[in-house]
Amino acid sequence: MTALACLVLAGCSKDETPVDTTYPVIDLAFQGASPQQCGTFSRGQKISFKARFSDNVALGSYSVDVHHNFDHHSHSTEVSDCALAPVKVPVKPYLLIRNFPIAGNPAAYEAVTEFDIPADADPGDYHFLIRLTDREGWQTLKGISIKIN
Amino acid sequence: MLLLWALSLHCFAQIQVSGQVSDEDGAPLAGVDVTAGNVKTRTDQAGRFSFIAPGKDRREVVLSKRGFQTYRQILAAADAPLYLRIILLPAERQLQEVQVLGDRDARLREQPLSVRAVDATFIRRNLGGSMMKTLERLPGVKTIGIGSGQSKPLIRGLGFNRVVVVDKGVKHEGQQWGADHGLEIDQFAAGRIEIVKGPASFLYGSDAIGGTIRIEPPAAPAADGLAGTFTGLAKSNNQLIGGSLQTALRHDKWFADGRFSYQDYGDYRVPATQVNVYNYPVALHRHQLRNTAGKERAVHLTAGYLDSTFRSVFFLSNTWNKSGFFANAHGLEPRRVDAAMHDARSHDILLPAQQVNHFKLLNRSSWQTGNQLFEAELGFQRNFRQEHSDYVNHGYMPAIYPRELAIPSDLERQFDKQVYSLNFRNTLAFERHRLTIGINTERQLNSIGGWSFLVPAFRQFSAGAFAVDNYQITGQLLLQTALRYDHVNFRSFGYSDWFATPVGSESLNLQRAAALGRKFNSLTWSAGLSYSPMPFFARLNVGRSFRVPIAKELAANGVNYHYFSYERGNSQLDPEQSYQADAGLGWKNSVWDITLSPYLNYFSNYIYLNPTADHDYSYGAGNQVFAYTQSRVLRYGLELELSRKIGGGRSIEVLGEYLHARQLSGSKKGFSLPFSPPPSVLFSLTQEFNNGNWLRDAFVSADYRLTAAQNNIVPPERKTPGSAVADLRAGATILAGKQPIGLNLQFRNVFDTKYFMHTSFYRLIDLPEMGRDVVLSISIPFHHQHKKNP
């Protein structure tokens, strides 16, 4: 009993270094950020991606996922939804999955890149999903509704 | 007593026999008739008795009290005074393991392990939507649940495959690893439940590293004739209607028992109009969680033979349940949530939904001969689980579900588990020892189905041999030592995607799992001491336990769309090792009942699903990588149970728990473990009544539970604010003529408080716990007994 009590007390009194419990932040609300909610892009051209990421300690990696929303799944993190085209069956929907490590694990990072949209992709409503982790494994998601003409 | 002394004067070679009698919860039993030959006495208020046994008579002592099973013991020839410690079991427990060897499983308080038992009365008074919800009032016991119907045990912060559920002596095997899976146990069919808090690997092998829940069936009828009970249950929050009808027939040494149970419930309601499913705002229709309705059915048939030395009982049961998943929170992309369709009716189960069928055929036999007891359990069970959802092309799955695929397009996952179990034990009583040696074996066949992949098919054989010795050093001091060796042979099968993923310039059907074979061996031990000079008692147990990594930990390789996680197994994991010190201190008399249970637990390699900083393209479809790793973990905690009778039928109760867990190594060093319950304390006040006439065992009781905030979190958890929730309960047995009717009423969450539970599956989506809920249960026993010949 005494031994147990000592161990328990020792466990309590030992200084515990505070751990990081803060989620990283995705910022698309600055001049030039893209895509924006209900933004429109064209087939055969590019989607430009420009976002600012920040964390209280160190960022980890991000991934970008573009997939069709022809079935109107509710997926937006934005309160205002865009006017959706009628539900339709996909034929050759545009699908993009890319993941990017953030080199050097900085606390702030601006992601700038572009993605090609094939000329023969189905036009319509799409979701643009951004996933961002910090070094500790906390993840923040942002879902944007876009249209491809 | 005078008579005894008088007798003693006339007899030759007398010895003094004294002792103490208690019930199985350790409360002293007064007024027990103690007979030895023609000597008769009764226990006093402290349950004590003492007499001088006439030497030449057959020294058999018989203890009897109304409402309890009669206890007989042949006294060993001895010259020294004898001290007996006897526990009487309730008469209703006929299926209890043979008692002739003494106090086999009943010395709960005197066990070195922390064991808590609840009976049918507790279950009736606290009946929740599932068995685990019912047990949640006990300190150290929590649940991981997805709402009303499905919940699984969490003992001292450990759950999933770290808690073993033993049903009628056989390990219950389902898909324990899934947070959204239930237990598939019919709570109406439980007669008594024992909870071992802390590891008991030496009895049940792998998995019993965090705790054990033992479920015993209700008693066979004690007397010849027909008897039964109807139990009804209604809940207001999710409009649950349930019931169970049980009938048993006994003729001499044979009996048969049948039970049918059902529950139907609608979508459950929370005190919120909107929840955030990972940042996605979801509006709730009339506070209802879209598509969380469900239904359950269970059939049990039991038949057996009971005599004083041999018992053999067959149990056949089938439980089935189907319930919806909260439509907005199923998977990464809450697609096809047709709010109008889902909100039209609250009682329909639409997609996504889960359906589980659990079939069991068990035999449990025991044979007592001389000072030996042989026990065996033989069982087959099949757990068949299907998760249905409209096809959603996650990642690189084709946009349109291919017609040629043999898998139904709405079958997301399927798990089919078939388990054969064989247990054998031999208990030998000699001198002051009770030695049990035994084996447990189990063979599992697991297959999978559905268009989504998480865990491969696998087979597993496990066998363990153990020896447990209970050495009664004195009447008050017991030493328990145990040693066990286990061998597990695991073999999983390969799996490749049915769809192609572009990798570089190619398109490949990715192989997600390669065939894998692993063998694990483990030696575990336990040593415990209990000292119980009533009313004080103390116990201390130290031990080593283990757990073999499960298929998901070894070989997962797919996206769990519930958590936005790409889960990656690690085929090199070692068996988890845990060292635990567990203590108990208590005081129990007719007024006070106090138990303090501290524990300390160290894992040298806790297997942990670690959310990493990475995303994976090919296997993970862009999702965050969650990788199984091992880390050193220290856990300690404390439970307090205090009750005091304050006169006039009133009593107060304080139940508290505290747990701290910390990872000592690995990439999450300094972090807690997931699903760690925050400290909580429950205050309860009870008033009991009895008019001695038509109203019996009546009570009114108020519970107030204070739960602290949980800020010790680990990805992907969220900090959970503290809460204060009040419950009211009342119940009575009412005599309508000669017919007793048991009524119980509960007002759960009386003030409709919006609060969160850290261990809830839906905590991650900011979903509050159930709002106000009125639960009514009614129980009507009936019996028809043959007239006995005089």
TrEMBL record, chain B:
Main localisation: membrane
Spans through the membrane: none
Matches recorded under Pfam families: CarboxypepD_reg, Plug, TonB_dep_Rec_b-barrel
Protein location: Cell outer membrane
InterPro entries reported for this sequence: Beta-barrel_TonB, Beta-barrel_TonB_sf, CarboxyPept-like_regulatory, Plug_dom, Plug_dom_sf, TonB-dep_rcpt-like
All copies of domain TonB-dependent receptor plug, residue ranges: 108-212
Keyword Protein biosynthesis: no
Topology versus the membrane: Multi-pass membrane protein
Ranges where the TonB-dependent receptor-like beta-barrel domain occurs: 361-733
Gene Ontology biological process: siderophore transmembrane transport
Keywords: Cell outer membrane, Membrane, Receptor, Signal, TonB box, Transmembrane, Transmembrane beta strand, Transport
Full protein name: TonB-dependent receptor
Organism: Pedobacter yulinensis
